[in-house]
Amino acid sequence: MILELCILFFLVALAYSAAGFGGGSSYLAILALWSVDFQLMKSTALLCNVAVVIGGVYHFYKSGHLPMKKAWQLSLISVPLAFAGSYLPLKQATFFLLLGIALTLAAVVMCYRLFFEREEEADPVRKGSGLVYGVIGGAIGLLSGMTGIGGGIYLSPVLRLGKYDTAKNIAGLSSFFILVNSIAGLLGQAAKHAIVFDMSFAGPLLIAVIAGGQIGARLSAKVLKPRWVAGATAVLILYAGVRMLVK
Questions:
Q1: Which residue ranges run through the membrane (predicted)?
Q2: Which of 17, 23, 33, 39 has a C-alpha 20 to 30 A away from that of 64?
Q3: Which residues are within 8 A (CB) of 102 and not within 5 positions of it... i.e. 6 or more apart?
Q4: pLDDT in tens, 177-218
Q5: Could you tell me the residue ranges of all domains in the chain?
Q6: Do residues 216 and 18 lie in contact, with contact meaning Cβ atoms separated by under 8 Å?
């Protein structure tokens, strides 16, 4: 089982990191389909998120595609809410209900990005309200903490629709957002002594996502074609999400 999971996690990290994402929604979907304990799922997905996006944040910052002022505006409210969401005592049934809804929404968002979002950056960047986007980021952070999803997959299309910045800068902002919220989520779990780390299980997965994330962060979209992977990933996430809701 662990070898199959390592291969899948490597491919997810490879595809997602090139777009500035951590892959938390896909990690959770895969672990859910493998019937992994829900606390171990949550901790492992957040750890893998951190392992993937920390390299992406460095890559985007070094290349000048991470405007730090906007990054902190988006994260100022989300970080404490991600901590609070992770600290909330959730029963297993409630967790899987929330996760099923979150994964289903994530699949819908991915389908929107795949079929309707333009790749061009011809439209000018708008001067939107930092407070409004901060509040949106806060809501996503709360969901992130409760479910173990980094939140970038929800934040990115909102920023793209609002023309908050260029596509490359939005990828950098999403990467930073995932990193700080995943760390906040882990701290929330640690604060209530609910963080679960099985080295024999999570260790190989972390190695797989670090390798995939480092390769993906250095590949351009023209080389990797992440949209090709997005379709298959959306189907996987949708299947896992609907399956949880039905159960």
A1: 44-61, 73-90, 96-116, 128-150, 170-188, 195-216, 228-246
A2: 23
A3: 25, 143, 147, 149, 241
A4: 999 999 999 999 999 888 888 889 999 999 999 998 888 777
A5: 2-246
A6: yes
Q: What is the DSSP annotation of the chain?
A: -HHHHHHHHHHHHHHHHTTT---HHHHHHHHHHTT--HHHHHHHHHHHHHHHHHHHHHHHHHTT---HHHHHHHHTTHHHHHHHHHHS---HHHHHHHHHHHHHHHHHHHHHHHHT------SPPP---HHHHHHHHHHHHHHHHHH---SHHHHHHHHHHTT-S-HHHHHHHHHHHHHHHHHHHHHHHHHTT-----HHHHHHHHHHHHHHHHHHHTS-HHHH-HHHHHHHHHHHHHHHHHHHHH-
pLDDT in tens, 54-73: 888 888 888 898 999 999 99
Structure tokens at 27: 């990690």
Q: By the 8 A CB rule, do 125 and 165 touch?
A: yes
Q: What's the residue count for the chain?
A: 247
| Residue 134, number of CB atoms within 10 A of its CB | 17
Distance in angstroms between the alpha carbons of the first and the last residue of the chain: 23
Q: Identify whether the C-beta of residue 154 lies closer than 8 Å to the C-beta of residue 105.
A: yes
The amino acid at residue 21 is: F
pTM, two decimals, is 0.84
Residue 47's pLDDT band (cuts 50, 70, 90): very high
